[in-house]
Design a protein that fits this description.
By secondary structure, the protein is mainly α. 81% of the residues lie in helices and 0% in strands. It contains 7 helices and no strands. Helix 2 packs across helix 4, helix 2 packs antiparallel against helix 5 and helix 6 packs antiparallel against helix 7. The protein starts with a helix and ends with a helix. The mean pLDDT is 81.
């Protein structure tokens, strides 16, 4: 992924550097999310954890939302926009959290972390298909490296499982 972001991007552009740092922060946040999720997944149900996460997010962002709402023209939001917001609320937040925490209760955090490597792959592919963004050689090479990493880590995990069973 470093190859896609650094070689494929605009190296000298300050916005590119800032964007890459923000993405790195998101990756670190996801790492904590998975690790801490695994820690609590054996003590609480996925629904309880998802509810706690949503409430925590509400508390964290409520002051910023109130500040933004003061100046926002809600009449400019159309029905399609509200449907998208509803979709994000249900699928991206509730359903994704439920699936993540259900999965974390069944697999090691390291396996879940490896499987989340599919996210950048799907982002590159969907940005090409839907957003008509350019697909560069660096994207293809980076995607190949991610797939190889997933393959080798999965192979090592399955070898360890076989050895522990015998």
């Amino acid at each position: 992924m470093l190859l896609i972001n650094l070689i494929g991007g605009e190296l000298g552009n300050i916005n590119s550097l800032l964007g890459n740092l923000l993405i790195l922060g998101a990756v670190l946040g996801e790492t904590l999310f998975i690790t801490l999720g695994k820690l609590v997944s054996n003590r609480f149900s996925p629904l309880t954890i998802s509810t706690m996460m949503s409430i925590f997010g509400l508390i964290m962002f409520l002051p910023f939302s109130i500040y933004e709402a003061k100046e926002f023209d809600f009449s400019s939001v159309g029905i399609a926009d509200w449907i998208n917001i509803l979709y994000f609320g249900i699928v991206v937040t509730v359903l994704a959290f439920l699936l993540m925490y259900q999965g974390l209760s069944k697999v090691p955090a390291s396996s879940a972390g490896v499987l989340t490597s599919v996210l950048p792959l799907s982002s590159v592919i969907l940005s090409f298909l839907i957003l008509k963004e350019e697909l560069l050689l660096s994207h293809l090479v980076g995607m190949l490296f991610v797939l190889l990493a997933i393959f080798f880590i999965s192979k090592d995990s399955s070898s360890e499982e076989l050895e522990s069973k015998t």
